[in-house]
UniProtKB/TrEMBL annotation:
InterPro entries, per database record: Homeodomain-like_sf, RNaseH_sf, Tc1-like_DDE_dom, Transpos_IS630-like, Transposase_5, Transposase_Tc1-like, WH-like_DNA-bd_sf
Pfam families cross-referenced by the UniProt entry: DDE_3 (PF13358), HTH_Tnp_Tc3_2 (PF01498)
Subcellular locations according to the entry: Nucleus
GO terms, molecular function: DNA binding
PANTHER family xrefs: TC1-LIKE TRANSPOSASE DDE DOMAIN-CONTAINING PROTEIN, TRANSPOSABLE ELEMENT-RELATED
Protein name from the UniProt record: Transposase
Transposase Tc1-like domain span: 76-143
Gene Ontology CC terms: nucleus
Coiled coil ranges: none
Length: 341
């Protein structure tokens, strides 16, 4: 790959390999770049790491319009305020960016600094009392060894909507009528939904309980779920401790009495507004992503696809999620904020 300047994607791969601690010879194998070029690129990066991925020494095209000084300012600004737009960045720095277009600023953020625009992740809004409660919970349970977390059965409910997604994608080309019915999927104005309950542990998962249409989870319904399914969940997962959140149905006196009578150990002080600590939330997200490519246009089809997706969740996924709890608690102990990655 000698004799011409490395393209940006190749330079990014080389720097990423370097940051991961790979030796030069290993980077050669992964990227096909010569040792000499790798050493030069890494040396330039070490000399000015804040400027991002080094640009070629000799440009073969149009000279860059944004200086290294401007790039460093842009990086700092966006690191501090991730919601900053390219237009706002240009307006707030007229001396450095006043002579370039918004498009140029946006392109530099993406191609030269490696930023990508993504949707902000949704995380629970927490008041001060909830933050303190979460930090106290994290402090208390960080003392648990990993083996004890592996004995927890993680449970919760979730809802899934009947979708207008019929699991199909279509080929389109320039000039076609996108409103032609053959290129469209019909939307559902007020979609039906299914409420489900599930539980998993390090050693496996229980059955996915799908509630009848229009049935809400109150204490009577929840008790019936536990009576009919908790034993199988414990048996399949090898778990010994029940986790449930503080939903009214879960903390009803009748439920507490049943758990006590059946000598079921459970976490009694789960903090409110803390779905991010419970790794089963990741399973619900996994199922919803899986269903995007499936035909879930009727309640019956949704139920079929849900059960199939639940059944094929690999054991390694369950194990990794169960083992992620200490890391979540470590993050929460520092700030009380969300632990989601």
């Amino acid at each position: 790959m000698s004799g011409k300047a490395l393209d940006r994607d190749t330079r990014v791969r080389v720097i990423q390999c370097h940051q991961l601690g790979l030796q030069t010879k290993d980077i050669v194998k992964k990227t096909g770049v010569s040792e000499r070029s790798i050493r030069r690129l890494v040396a330039k990066f070490k000399a000015s790491p804040s400027a991002g991925v080094p640009t070629p020494s000799k440009s073969t095209g149009r000279p860059t319009k944004i200086s290294e000084t401007s790039l460093r300012l842009m990086r700092r600004s966006v690191d501090i305020t991730p919601t900053l737009t390219a237009r706002k960045l240009k307006e707030e720095n007229p001396q450095l960016l006043g002579k370039v277009t918004v498009r140029t600023v946006s392109g530099a953020l993406h191609r030269r600094l490696g930023f990508t625009k993504v949707s902000a992740r949704r995380k629970p809004a927490l008041n001060e009392k909830q933050r303190k409660s979460r930090k106290a919970f994290a402090k208390k349970y960080l003392n648990w060894p990993l083996e004890k977390w592996r004995s927890v059965l993680w449970t919760d409910e979730s809802s899934f909507l009947v979708s207008d997604n019929k699991g199909k994608k279509v080929w389109v080309r320039k000039g076609i009528d996108r409103d032609d019915p053959k290129y469209c999927a019909l939307t559902i104005k007020h979609p039906a939904s299914l409420m489900v309950w599930g539980g998993f542990g390090y050693g496996g998962k229980g059955p996915l309980v799908i509630l009848p249409k229009n049935v809400m989870v109150n204490q009577q319904v929840y008790l019936k779920i536990l009576e009919n399914n908790l034993g199988e969940c414990f048996a399949n997962s090898g778990a010994e401790i029940l986790q449930q959140d503080g939903a009214p149905a879960h903390r009803a006196n009748s439920v507490k009495k049943w758990l006590q009578e059946n000598e079921i150990d459970y976490i009694t002080d789960w903090p409110s507004n803390s779905p991010d600590i419970n790794p089963i939330e990741n399973l619900w997200g996994l199922l919803k992503r899986e269903l995007r490519e499936k035909d879930t246009s009727t309640v019956e089809k949704l139920e079929t696809e849900l059960r199939a997706a639940w059944d094929k969740i690999p054991d390694t996924t369950l194990q990794n999620l169960a083992d992620s709890v200490p890391t979540r608690l470590t993050k929460i102990r520092k700030t009380g904020l969300s632990s989601h990655k």
